[in-house]
Each structure stands twice: as C-alpha cells, then as structure tokens.
Amino acid sequence: MLLRLAAERRVLFVGGKGGVGKTSVASAVALERARDGGRVLVVSTDPAHNLGHLWDRPLGDEPTTVVAVADGARAGGGAARVDGRGGGVDAVEIDPARTVETHLAGVRSTMLRLLPERLHGQVEQHLAFAREAPGTYESAILDRLAECVEAGLDAYDLVVVDTAPTGHTLRLLALPAQLTSWTETLLASRDRAERFGAAVRGLGGRRAADVDVDAELRRVLVRRRRRFATLRDVVGDPGRTSFVIVGVAEPMPVAESLALDAELASLGVDVSAVVVNRRSPADAGELLAQRRRAEDQQLRVLRAGLEAGSGARAGGGPDVVELPLLAGDLVGEPGVAAIGAAIRAAG
Question: CDD domains recorded for this chain (predicted)?
C-alpha cells in the first residue's frame, strides 16, 4: 500500500502525533522508493529535526545525499530507469533560524530598494518586530517548503515531507490558501494604485522611477502568489499528493489520528493511509500479549472512526497499515532498511 502510493504520487506528507515514528516511516518509504529506482527528496519541517539523527549524519538546509542506489541494485526487482541512472535519497532539514533570517533579509532588501531613504529607519524597526511576531516562523517555513516542493517536482520522482506534530502541520497546510488569497488582495490594491498612477502620469505628475517601483513590487507579489498557489494546488491534488498519518494503537494517538484525518478532509487534503506503528507481538510472552489485546481494542476504535468519517469522501476512507514492533536501535541505513522491509512485507 505505502510503496504503491510512493510509486503513484509525486508528493507524500507524513504526519501525526509526536514520538510515534513519523520520521522513520517517511525515511523508510523514501528508501524503498529509491531501491525501486526512484530519486527521492525527504524534507523535514519538524523543528525537533530527527531526520539527521535517524540517518546518523548531519543534515542541513540544502539537500544532502543519504543513500545512492546503483542501477541494477534495487530491491524487489523494480524496473530499470529509462535514463539508466540509479535511485537515491536526498534529505533536507529546514533550518528555522536560517529560514527566518533569509526570509527577512529578502524582505529587507526589497523594501530598502523600493522605498525612499526617509522610510528606511521605519523598515528596520518593522523588521525587528517582525522577527519575533506570531506567524513569521510559519511564513518562512512555508516559503522554504514551497521552494523544496517546486524544485523537487522538477528534479525528483518523489518528495516526502516529514512534518512537525499535528498542530504545526495543520497550520502549515492551511497557509498556502490563506497566503495566496492575501497576496491576491495585495495585487488588487496594487492594480488600483497603478491605475491611479497612470491617470496621474497622464497629467504629467509622476516620475519614471515611481513607475519602476510599482512594476517591481508587482513582480515580487506575483512571484510570491505563484509559489503559494503552486503549493496549494499540489497539496490539494489527490492525483499528485497524499497524506499518510502515523500513530500507535494507544488511546491518545488514536484520538489524535482521527482528529487529524477529519481536519485534513476539511482542508481538502487526500489521506490515503493510516500507519499503526510498533504493533506488539501476540506470541512473545504474556506482557506483550496483554499489550497486543489492548492495541486490538484501540485498532477497532480507529477503524470505526475512520469508517464513520469516510462518508463524505468520494473514494472512501484511508487504508490502515500495521507495522510490527522491531528490535534494536533502528538508526542509519540498516535501521531504516529494516523498517522498509516491514513496510514491504505489509503489502
């Protein structure tokens, strides 16, 4: 199920409650897709950043190759690439501090270039407040994510987004539509101002430099609107994008998974699968057998909730995929591969 999704979609978001194994599942899906010959970009938007810890290597804000799969060395007998190149996984941990600084530096450069010098002091003051203002972090992260998805669609077969815990992710997914609408409002205001400017120019009262400023402001706004609109369209297109919810069979994660499924449905985001991670074995002692029985009860709650929420969906509710509790310290490529093998075995 998960590997079929990885082969059919261009973008997979992987999210859920903190500590349930989102990063492990996201990385394992990426690795298996790479072993089938795909080029995959994994992007972490989680400020906690477990991606580098999982792959046991430092990662940063630019793509770093964590796995290169030589052509012909794929697992599962995947078809050879037409271009003869092997698959691989590149990874990015979006750096919140760098992203905010880069974002504000870009805004500062644009504003100082476009506004008269007498207003530069106010610009600096505004940006100092903006650095700590609510929403600055989310806006900057969204800008960087939009860049990664846009570049990823050109250069990779699949982009896997390893998201922050639920609340952050929902705000992030709602932002593209909100910011697209906000930018369109700004553009409409610019259009009205430009029409007024044209009328003034007709009377000989406006300088050519002012016209250049208007044109550049418009280009900045159009570029920003295009980027957010692209991300909004990609996120809302079930043919290209799906969301995979990861949880464990315990009361709070199950409740949060059902709430996340409902919220994503209200945002128009396709949820194709819910992964129930770390299922206890039934035949490894009484303690784990008891846990298994308790998990079975939570699994029934999860399936009933998903079925109840599937009525409004044309294609029904998401599939449930169970992954077993695995032994050992699952880090580095061998650890990710062990999770990938479990995903492949789950079908």
Answer: ArsA (cd02035)
Beta-sheet pairing, 271-279 with 39-44? unpaired
Number of separate domains in the chain: 2
Q: How far apart are CA 228 and CA 179, in angstroms?
A: 7
Same domain, 177 and 301: no
Q: Which residue, of 217, 247, 277, is where some domain finishes?
A: 277
Which residue reads 């207003």 in tokens?
119
Backbone phi and psi for residue 207, each to the nearest 5 degrees, phi listed first:
-85, 155
Structure tokens at 1: 């199920």
C-alpha distance from residue 274 to each of 110, 217, 243, 255 (Å): 43, 44, 9, 13
Same domain, 294 and 323: yes
Same domain? 78 vs 214: yes
Closest C-alpha to 28, from 265, 344, 250: 344
Q: What is the pLDDT of residue 190?
A: 59
> Where would I find the beta strands (DSSP E) of the chain?
11-16, 39-44, 64-68, 88-93, 158-162, 241-248, 271-279, 319-324
Domain that holds residue 77: 1-277
* Planar angle of CA 142, 148, 149, nearest 5 degrees: 90
**CATH code for the domain in which residue 18 is found:** 3.40.50.300
Cα 255-268-148 angle, rounded to 5 deg: 95
Whole-number Å distance between alpha carbons of 312 and 80: 40
The answer to whether residues 199 and 234 belong to one domain is yes
Token readout for 269 is 């985001």
Indicate if 36 and 106 belong to the same structural domain: yes
pLDDT digit string, tens, across residues 66-124: 999 876 455 444 444 444 567 899 999 998 778 778 877 877 787 777 777 877 887 78
pTM beyond 0.85: the answer is no
Q: Which of 253, 277, 301 is the last residue of a domain?
A: 277
